[in-house]
Amino acid sequence: MAHEKGFVHWKRTAHTGLRYYEHKTRKHGKRPDRYYQVRFRVDKKLYSYGVGWLSEGIPEEVRLRSPHTGFEEYAIDQMRKFRANVKDGSGPKSPREKRRMLVEAEAEAEREEAAAEHEKTNLERFFTDTYLPVSITSKSKSSSQHEEGHFKKWIDPVCGEKPIREISSFDVERIKKRLQDAGRSPRTIQYVLATFRQVWNAAKLARLVVGDSPSKSVTQQKYDNRRQRFLTHQEADLLLETLKAKDTAVYEMALLSLHTGMRAGEIFKLTWACVDPDRGTMTILDTKSGRNRVAFMTGAIKEMFTGKTRGKPDELIFTWGEKKPYREIPTLFRDTVTALKFNDGVSDRRLKVYFHTLRHSMASWHAQAGTDLYVIKEMLGHCTIQLTERYSHLSNETMRTAVKNLERGIDAARTNGQLQQANDGGSGQ
Predict the structure, then answer these.
(1) 33, 150, 254, 321: least CB-packed within 10 angstroms?
(2) What whole-number percentage of the chain has pLDDT above 70?
């Protein structure tokens, strides 16, 4: 060995290029253990490599292939191979390089095995082991439950056992047909295919698949899912009074949404650092659109905050239990809506009252009052004016009034012109 070269005496063997030295104390059988080394020259350059200890024996694969081969014969065979590789520049040129190449080959084999396992991963296994656990921890309870229901009832029976890489738009068409045959609405079909798309995109991030979701090429019936229902002022007052008598926190969150248009998720994340009652403003961070915005307080909102004990800057304003953050609106809100019979006889979700209806009501009231759509857009935090234009029909009365004003102006101008002509004629000019 290299660090022992100055302390050992090499002995030649009967084979040219092969030598050994004996260990001072270690035995192999009754004799001292031997360490072998091969030496050869190529283009006058000397190469020397250690082969190993006699006690270690020859590699298992060589022993199985040639059971009668001795250690020295094995060493000479290795020397010939290394010398040939040095000459022609192919293959391992030393035991170290051979070991490195073996390690790399094993690593490559493991990678190929993992890749093959990836290719065999079916949709059900990925959803259960990877997607659903993340959905449960990162989404609201209702969202993750809906996704699980969509998958188990509609997606899994069609292509759950199929490797993800083999799923095509034809499989998605089969999912859609299954929903249609069961009489499900276009909106339900949209929800189920949206779940499929999200699972596919998660598999894409995990590098199990490439390309867009097969659902992208599947045509769906157009469906306007925008909420149409908004509260009258009388309904809103009744709802707030009922909530206030039952639960202060739910009442205050409802009041915030109704007066500022804040989404439930934005209310849940509101901290004291974002609230400035003196200026009458609230900074809404990390919104759905990705843009922060400022909401202005009505008198009722300002009074609500000034009446609360202010917490630390990074402390959430709305919590439950032992300072736990809300993840969804308490069921008390839904139960109150039911008790007030706001949804009696209504089957279409677009016409039902939900917590989000409060945000929609605020925007609708503004539109009816003649507030400019661009102002409503900024209040709601919409990315584009197209999202806000849904409220344009509510401002028809304002536009009708504007047209009437225009007509009055035209009539007034016409009347003034006639009077002017009469005056000019009367002066004799």
Answers:
(1) 321
(2) 88
